[in-house]
Specification:
By secondary structure, this protein is mainly alpha-helical. It contains 28 helices and eleven strands. The N and C termini lie far apart (64 Å).
Amino acid sequence: MPSADDDLGPQHLAEPRRTVTAEPRDRSPEHAEPSRFIPHVQGLRAIAVLAVVLYHFWPGRFPGGYVGVDIFFVISGFLITSHLMRELTATGTVRLGQFWARRARRLLPASLLVLLFCALVAMSPYLTPTSALPNEVREILASTFYVENWYLALNSADYLNHSGDPTTVQHYWSLSLEEQFYVMWPLLMLLAAWIGVKWFRGSRRRAVIVTLAVVSVVSFAFCVVFTLTNPAPAYFVTFGRMWQFGIGAMVALVPMLRIRNAIGSFVLGWAGILVLLYVVFTFDAQTPFPGYAAAVPTLGAAAVIMASNHERWWYPTRVLAIRPAQFVGNISYSLYLWHWPLIIIAPSVPFWGLTIYHRLALLALCFVLAWLTKKFVEDPARGWKVLTSRPARVTLWSSLGAMVLVAGVAGAAWAVNAGTYTAGVKALQDLRENPPECFGAASVLDPTCADTDFADTILPAAGFAGVDRPTSPECFVQLNDARPVSCTFGSDDPDAPRVALIGDSHAYQLLSTFESMAEENGWQLVTYFKGACPWNTTPLATPGAFGAACTEWRDSMSAELADADIDAVFTAALATTPYSSDGYPSSHDAAVAGYREAWSDMLDRGIPVITVVDNPVWETDPNKCLRTRAEAAACDGERSAVLVADDPLRDAASGLDRATLLDFTDVYCGQDVCWPVVGGANIYRDQDHVTVTFADTLKPWYSSAIEDALASRDQ
């Protein structure tokens, strides 16, 4: 997370003098010493913020851009440690109140401004889905009080795989983590300095280096282990990231790590930049991160900082000091704050979308807002005499008051919309219990419903479709988890037919529908789900721990199925899953062969397999359009753009004995376009998963296919 400090941007690294002159009350002794500006670190800040922003705008083109945050952690560790060590050396202590007050004056004004903007946006049902309001308000509150990273960690948010519905303030997790660093790091250094005086013959620097090195090593070990065992929360947990600040601290504290030799500095600096560019273009959502992988961008950033020779124009230190890089580095804090809320809000703005032209215009707007915020909010707040001329506690209490004010506006956003939210929850419950006649898929598939007209009906409402999802997340395995988790629903009768539902999230989206089918038909339903991991033997094209976990899950799940008493199997999968070609002419051919091989054991045992052609996949959630358009037809998508023409499931099941293929393409799409609403039913809860409400309208056809399969097994 980029810092807003001028003493966190322009860097001051001269050796301290032994005498300290009196400073004004608003000046911390860390600035009592002469300093030397090092602009290439500000240029590195520009690389970091551009990596994050471009990743959020074009995740497919800059898949590893999320490492920009890791670069910021290294920079902050380097700068803050430099300042604190200089003050410790000069005065023997750190004036914590002044230190924290200065951080507050530099960080909070812009941060709270953006949070206030997000709270106001949350009040509008046109810009924020009503169903998302509770989580939006909770995250604004968590971000206001700098615990957003822990909120996300405790809720197992999946930052890299974009699971769930991100709020406008999700990016505040890194700012929260940095603020926690600002609180803990000076305390840790003070403790180390006290130990140095008491037991290391007064060598504060040596004690600080040893202490921070130990903390960094332990933190890195924790990060690696936690990423392997709990990858989603590992991304956000504070102690799992402290080692990255520690790497920057070591560069600040150990003089020999700042390379002034011309050749060494040239090679080290350019090598660091190339490593960062390599990571931005090659890491992706499936890279186990942070873990071992985070060491690559962390060390790359450290290498750039370590390069200290700037004699020639082609040296990396001089290239990073050019005016455009300095400009982006200067506005990096505000640019980071503004870009994400605008990306989340933009698709909901009338007559706006996320085409290439919209994205470029939005990117330009982000830069304009960042520059304006820097000029009229960040810079003036730093020297506001009302605060700088008074004791540090005045700044700290004022900061707390401002935070409470923003929290109050967020609470008001909830109060204004609470009635609508409650009504929406009730309407969704009533819809589940008493759906209209000829609703949804029936309007297309049932001949008796041919003349039914639902006019402008959209159920559930676009503001509530996002929460219309299965309610058994414990049955769904994600990320690097390879456990063959199984859940059982329906009849307890040992003689009841046993139906297995297997696959990725596109199988999981049918869970609630199949659960009610099992109850109604007297079946026992057994489930196996893993995110982005279809029931297929062909390896995924995604390398690393995620692909390995998928393979392991498949093997374990298949072993359990081999010993299970199953009467029929239903499977579904995302059509755009990336498969390895695995020796076949194409990845499509490999996927088809992998499905057939996965099903072969069931089919050889006479157990029928039913599958379904995948639903369309949209570029963005159609509900964002539905909330702002008067007619649902305005949100139709071109069939060629949203429907996968060669779904491998279709080819795998076609002509295969005892395999049944269901194809509801004509329900989703006409000849040229696909619809977000059919027969009054809102089809999608996000860009590619269907609502439980719509899946329920297909229940008669799912039930018929399974009953036919069970009957054929008895013959």
